[in-house]
Amino acid sequence: MKAIIYSETGDPSVLTLVDREPGEPGAGEVRVRIAVAGVNPTDWKSRTGAGPGQKPAFDEVVPGQDAAGTVDAVGDEVSGLGVGDRVWLLLAQHERPTGTAQEFTVVPAERVVRLPDEASFELGASLGVPAVTAHRALTVSEDGPSRLHPGALDGKTVLVAGGAGAVGHSAIELAVWSGATVITTVSGPEKGALATSAGAHHVVNYKTEDAAARIREIAPNGVDLVVEVAPSQNAELNAAVLATRGVVAIYANNGGDTFTVDIRPNMVLNTRFQFVLLYTVGSVALEAAKEDVAAAVAAGALTVGESSGLPLHEFSLADTAAAHQAVEDGVTGKVLIRVG
Known about the structure:
NADPH:quinone reductase; NAD(P)-bd_dom_sf; ADH-like_N
């Protein structure tokens, strides 16, 4: 089989196409023939490591957390999955040397979720990191739901920062499916059109509008939850628009590694800041996300493609380096690797 590997950290040039024998699934594992793999910021950040020329966690790494494909072999002690099942993967490379940038991958069965026949492999490969992160961000409020389903967020107002990104797109679609009123902030009309296509009820261009005033006009009592990609840049805005007992769910550090908050105003609001990292959310949150995301997929609530607000950028397996570079450069939309 063909696989992409790297044995030292650095820029995309460290990625190499090689031939390998497919692995055999052990107890509790399945082997999946990859059709399409997804590329996320976590992939290039892991590839760069602490600096160029450093050794990664394993002698040789196949990158990639997300993908969709077909179960090819099943190990012992696996139930609920069989050869030929269409599936999507999450956390495929977490604490493992082999991920999804290869023709076959072996993963623990709990990281494999069945994909309905009507859902494309492109959609399946776009779930994983974006959709599960979005799910966790939408379920962190103490007075909100721990699960998502139609009606779960009725009466809630959700602000999605950066609604044109992959996580933002998933957050918009999941929040709308769950009944929330969704506001999103964008940097221009093109991204605004994408957020609208994803289903956002209100789009605020923070470059041309007074974002705080506009959001307060839409939600006079404030927003209940902020899905935040840039906490440093948006700290002042969030403080201005958050409702009492509102939550800021932070899943990225775009625009700065630190941020400052005014203690007294946030104390008055009983503001809660909840950080979200997929790798450490715990098994309960992961299982809930897998089930709810699968239900949203089955309901047609999660979509991909430019008409759905998430343009797709496809690369071949041999061009994985270019795919990584595209994500690192901040391309708008979802980067996919066509493997099978």
